[in-house]
Design a protein that fits this description.
By secondary structure, the chain is an alpha+beta fold. It contains 2 helices and 7 strands, in the order H-E-E-E-E-E-H-E-E. The strands form 3 sheets. It has a 3-stranded mixed beta sheet with strand order 1-5-4, with no helix packed on it. Strand 2 and strand 3 form a beta hairpin. It is rod-shaped.
Length: 115
């Protein structure tokens, strides 16, 4: 077998992969967790690509596994703001004592920051 033949056979076509090993339908992940609550991501999504490429008539193509929020940094900033709002809400409703962390926690020890 020549080097060119080996390279030509290196990448399979989708039909060459047994059914039980093929990637399923793409999963679109729009939910993210904030303060124990699932939120819906309304922003743009980024594709999640498999490291496996398939041979097609147009050449090699990556397998799309799904998508996730595009701007994760923005999502993290939004989550931090939501957590800060939850902390303030806890202060207002007496669920959190300033300087103590959660109500009843000893001074200087915040159970939310367990080491």
């Amino acid at each position: 077998m020549t080097l060119q033949n080996r390279l030509d056979n290196l990448y399979p076509r989708a039909d060459d992969i047994p059914e039980q090993f093929r990637a399923g339908p793409a999963i679109e992940q729009r939910e993210y967790l904030v303060n124990g609550e699932l939120r819906q991501w309304q922003g743009p999504l980024a594709p999640v690509l498999s490291p496996v490429s398939l041979k097609t008539d147009a050449g090699l193509e990556s397998v799309v596994l799904g998508s996730t929020p595009l701007n994760l940094a923005r999502c993290v900033r939004r989550r931090r703001m939501d957590l800060a709002r939850a902390q303030i809400e806890g202060l207002v409703h007496g669920l959190v004592h300033p300087g103590l962390g959660r109500a009843g926690a000893p001074a200087g020890r915040n159970p939310a920051r367990a080491a």
